[in-house]
Design goal:
Strand content: 5-15%
CATH class: Alpha Beta
Distance between the termini: 38 Å
Strand order of the largest sheet: 3-4-5-6-7-8-9-10
Length: 335
């Protein structure tokens, strides 16, 4: 396993991190989740990403139990806040009240005194950004949070947050967590250039496009049973890919590229996102330990320019690049 700085911070993270968005507390039983976490640790992954909303807070609980007994200073634990975790109007968003209550809940579920990175899961249009950043900064000063990040924020929102932090003397954002893959490149036009300028690193999710880039979803055929496409918590994200027969056909054309390099399709997909120097870590999920062991082999793989061009030529016409997609991810009103 190789390691990278998280943005321009001093924190080192494993360039492949383990995430439990759909799996823990939802798609797989706890014993299988524990086995996947142990496989991640055995393979050198030190960075673990979750969120309070995953599986209705159960994912944090499962991860906390799975990491129990592991030396706390040997791992980096990331979580997030924004989406509803209760029925009330203040059980959501990025207000001082919700952030403060949510971090206490996350620490309790994760069985830890602090998280290494606390992320704003979306941009909250209903809370002054100054209030959100001041609350995050207070948590840093209290020792409950070490670093602050965001997820799926636009370049303009990240730039505004950096400006306010500098003006008010708050800790700066060090990371952004966007969707990024060979098929979904919407961060490249605006988010990545801005983040390179201000020292924010990308912790990318869905580098395998919810499994589409493994090649297991075939044109004209139903998705395999028990796959991401059949899980209610993740199926909405994958539909945009599965609805396109031309895209699925082109993904099949990537198989010779992977074979020529001695890589699996999943390894090729993860290695591809890691070629971007602004990417600090790529999040992989798993329902079986062997998936973890397969994915980590992408660490340290270098794809030469000819391979990158070949991939671009194969996927020409099916890659999504419009940066406007990021702006639509954060609801105008709290959910």
């Amino acid at each position: 396993m190789e390691f990278r700085h998280l943005g321009r911070s001093g924190l080192m993270v494993s360039e492949i991190s383990y995430g439990n968005w759909i799996t823990h507390g939802s798609q797989v039983e706890e014993d299988a989740a524990r086995e996947c976490v142990q496989a991640a640790l055995d393979e050198g992954i030190t960075t673990f990403d979750t969120a309070d909303v995953y599986a209705g807070t159960k994912a944090e609980e499962v991860l906390g139990r799975a990491l129990k007994g592991v030396r706390r200073d040997s791992v980096e634990i990331f979580t997030k806040v924004y989406w509803p975790t209760g029925p009330g109007p203040n059980n959501r968003g990025l207000s001082r009240k919700h952030i403060t209550e949510s971090i206490h809940g996350s620490l309790r579920r994760l069985q830890t005194d602090y998280v290494d990175l606390y992320q704003a899961h979306r941009f909250d249009h209903e809370t002054p950004l100054e209030e959100t950043l001041k609350t995050f900064d207070d948590l840093v000063r209290q020792g409950k949070v070490l670093y602050i990040g965001v997820s799926e924020w636009t370049a303009a929102q990240i730039e505004q947050a950096i400006k306010i932090a500098d003006e008010m003397g708050f800790d700066r954002l060090v990371s952004n967590q966007p969707q990024y893959s060979m098929l979904w490149r919407v961060i490249e036009a605006e988010v990545v250039p801005l983040c390179e300028k201000v020292g924010v690193g990308q912790i990318v999710w869905s580098p395998i496009a919810q499994g589409v880039l493994t090649g297991k979803y075939l044109p004209g055929q139903p998705p395999p049973a028990a796959s991401r496409a059949t899980d209610p918590s993740g199926s909405g994200f994958i539909e945009r890919f599965l609805s396109r027969e031309d895209l699925l056909a082109k993904v099949q054309d990537l198989k010779p590229v992977a074979a020529d390099l001695g890589l699996t399709m999943a390894q090729l997909a993860v290695a591809w996102v890691l070629q971007n120097p602004n990417v600090s870590s790529a999040i992989v999920g798993a329902s079986r330990p062997e998936q973890v062991r397969d994915n980590v082999k992408a660490s340290g793989v270098r794809l030469d320019d000819d391979v990158m061009r070949r991939i671009d030529e194969i996927l020409d016409g099916v890659v999504e690049r419009d940066p406007a997609h990021t702006a639509r991810v954060s609801p105008p009103k709290r959910p």
